[in-house]
Description:
single chain, 13 helices
Amino acid sequence: MTNKQIYAKTFTFTMKRLVFDCICVLLLAGLGVAGFFIVDKMNDQGLIGLAIGVVFAIILIAILSHFFSYVFKAGQIAMMTKAITEGSLPNDVYGEGKRIVKERFLTVAAFYAVTGAIKGIFNQIGRLITKAGESIGGDTGNAVGSAISTAIQVVVGFLCDCCLGWVFYRKDQKAVKATCEGAVIFFKNGKALLRNLGRIFGMGILSFLVFVGIFGGLSYLILSNFPELFVRIASELPADAPAWLSNTTNLTLVGAGIIGVIFWSIIHSVFIRPFVLVGVLRNYMEAGMKNIPTESSFAELDKRSSKFAKLHQEI
């Protein structure tokens, strides 16, 4: 199956994630607005009410995501892995993906334990690279370190997904051992896998510019019809807030920009990122299947990551 065919066949997960994310946005907006008006009527402090509503919404969304949304992402990765390694997918892609996730991880806690271990290993190695940039010294070193850190976090996200795909592929192995193998695959084939960086960052930057521009612009046109709201918000800003925020036009632009970023985040993670992931995952799986990691290769990574060494001991 080609990358486009795999993306199209697993699109059902994309649509379910989109519905879930839209519900989350409505919760965020609804509870934020409700908090604003309720507290505003009670003690004329609408901005505080807005913050309370948003915080409550974020907590609720985090709980829902923890127990429900992980199936959409993990199921899609499982089906992408199956398509790449077996060359075909069943008719009921969603049902099969959900079954594989539940079969591989009998509990939600087991899933997050494995994904947490994967992130811990890659983040630890990433921090070592970041420190190398900071060692240059001064403001330049900090800037280099920050830039490297940001780039690494993006790459780590894809590596974690690829490693999770390997865990699904190695279904006859314990999840912990498969996780260790998945981490080793990158470090043994790093140069080949890093060829995906252009695709990862190119698509990310392009989608950011396009969708933040579109949705930010539309949001500004809508929000500019409610000048009284932003006059009110500006009057309730704390004394230490930047002076330029007291200008309602600037405040409206900030609000529109935030909305634009939210919509970009949803569209990129739901539509663009899975499309990029198919190609990255294919390269990763092919590299791993050609040379499945052995116990001796685990020892090499033990020296680089204490988190990996700790996980290795659990096998």
